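Corrinoid adenosyltransferase structure dump, as promised
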Amino acid sequence: MRIYTRTGDKGQTGLIGARADKDDARVEAYGTIDEANSFIGKAMTELDPEIYADLLADLEAIQNELFDCGGDLADVRKEPQFKMTEQPVAILESRIDDLMDEPPLLERFILPGGSPAAATLHIARTITRRAERQTVTLMKKGEDFPPVVQRYLNRLSDYLFAAARVANCRVGVPDNEYVRSAKVFKNGGRGKKSE
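structure tokens r here:
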């Protein structure tokens, strides 16, 4: 099976309903979503199924939802068929609340790292934040896509933070606090909403 088409050799790629330059802001955004999805896949290979069955189930659903987000950003038809809904956002919020009850209370910023899986989840978190910033740029330009995509990416970065902390906690690896951080979290970091 041949996977190359040569149609992108002049610096363009296919959206759903049009072609665009490969450095188009819309292509950048869904490409960054793909990058985050790839690191989520890597994190899944680093999570022991006997310890992290719940996280693995979450992350598999998230990988599918990220494909939906990317597809919605790529759909530029006059009558697009968007897939993302508010339900995955609500599910992420519920899971964040559950996960944040598990690790020790948090008062200060923490450094990304710890166990291999936690470190990878932190990478996915920061890439997700970049994807969110790129969707905000699209929103400011008046591009047509469901606003829920931006909200989903916002919650997902919070979820990945919580999941990284749980990934460390369950194997007894403490979070490494940023030593010059003031006490910035109220309620031990619980109940803090996305920004």
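Strands lie at 12-14, 19-21, 110-111, 176-177.
lmk if u need the other ones
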